[in-house]
Amino acid sequence: MPNKWLQAGYGKPLRELFLTQRLISFIDFGDLQIFEGATTCPCVFISEKSTPLKQVDISFLTSDKSIDFLSNISSNKQVFDLAKFSGDIWVISSNKEKDLLVSLQLKYKTLSKTINGEAYYVVKTGLSDAF
């Protein structure tokens, strides 16, 4: 199935459903293209109708250079705490990426804070009567 439901509004009911089931494993192929001639963003999940687990194994496949598929899954696996997930958008990224994001957020101000939330227009890109 495509991984777009993780972040799209239409995926909220599915995200909420998964939180009530036993999500055992999740494999996100991200931008890795596995079908020749077709752009896809697939993911594979293993779930069962049972009491939810507290954690889930999530693999982020970033390269198809592994010796085999199972090695690729195993070497890119991380454990995630499901208590941190809700029906809202699921941003699933590696711990390394999350650490980088937190570091950047602590070190730099956001554009919104820099301009005090007051943006009236964007960069003017040409001479026009509209400007």
Strand order, biggest sheet? 2-1-3-4
Q: Give the helix/strand class.
A: alpha+beta
Low-confidence stretches: none
Number of strands: 4
Radius of gyration from the CA trace? 20 Å
Mean pLDDT: 82
- C-alpha geometry: extended
What portion of the residues fall into strands of 2 or more residues? 15-25%
Please tell me the total number of domains: 1
Main β-sheet: number of strands, strand sense, barrel status? 4 strands, mixed
Q: What string gives the helices and strands in order?
A: HEEEHEHH
How far apart are the termini?
Answer: 46 Å
Enumerate how many helices there are, as a single number: 4
**Could you estimate the helical fraction of the residues in percent?**
10-25%
Task: Characterize the structure shown.
The longest helix has 13 residues, at 95-107. The protein has helices at 12-19, 69-75, 95-107, 111-114; strands spanning 22-28, 43-48, 55-60, 77-81. The relative contact order is 0.16. It has one domain (3-114). Helices cover 24% and strands 18% of the residues. The chain is extended, with a radius of gyration of 20 Å. It is built from four helices and four strands, in the order αβββαβαα. It has a four-stranded mixed β-sheet with strand order 2-1-3-4.
